[in-house]
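Page 42, continued from yesterday. The earlier attempt failed because a stray header line got pasted into the input along with the sequence. Redoing it now with the clean sequence only.
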Amino acid sequence: MLSAKSLFQEILANDESFALFCSIAASGESQGGWENARIAALVPESERELAPKITRHGADEDKHGRIFNALLKKRGLDPVPVPPETDYTMLLEKNGIGLAHEQLGRDERLAVQDIVTYLSHSRVTEQRASEQMDLLRKHFADDPDIGRAVKQISNDEDNHLAYCHEELLRLAYAGHGRAIQRTLRECALAEIRVYRDVSLAVMANMGRILGWSKAKSAVLAAGIHAMYAYERLGGWRRMVSLEMPERRDALGGPASTAPEFA
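This time it went through. Structure tokens are written below.
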């Protein structure tokens, strides 16, 4: 029987598929770390109090990249090239979601609207990350190899999502509500397409490595398309709602250090 747990167990058990999984994850986290560091450096004067939280966000993302690389090292594996069709972060940028790397590479102060764009993009993508890590935590929190890493990253992603809710609500109360809702909707509708395409690409690569039958690959692809249909029909709305989180000031302190892996 196909399930998220059985699929991940299969990926985890094979060195080549595990190396690809960790390399994709580490690459995305490292890109997120760079993006947040640049945004923190370029934040407008009116939002300077937000800079330490953006810096903390980026530090967490960098930490996650180190954790995935540490998991590879623990298995005696090296990172592998990330197929372009599986690069979630860069594909989102190519679809016009978030702040472009070209803009972040310039030493020009951002505008408040750019911060709205950044936080809206993060609100959507952190929803996805939080859900994915919650699923892994449900099944693998006690796993001797990846359990500590899963719990650490899952907790951080929940903090990131809480931070996005709180800061977007603050900006909405300051008069940016319509811009926030418009940007959230644009981000969510683009993200679900990119997530579908990346999921299909990742499963195709895993299927090649693990020798999946055409029937198994077809079933998995059908499931991905069904999830996209659900999200396109209304599931995307969970990514654009805003409510004050229970975790207040979730990124108000320094980032925690990455756990050591013997």
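Notes: Helices lie at 4-13, 15-42, 51-74, 88-94, 101-104, 112-140, 147-210, 214-233.
Reminder to self: strip header lines before submitting.
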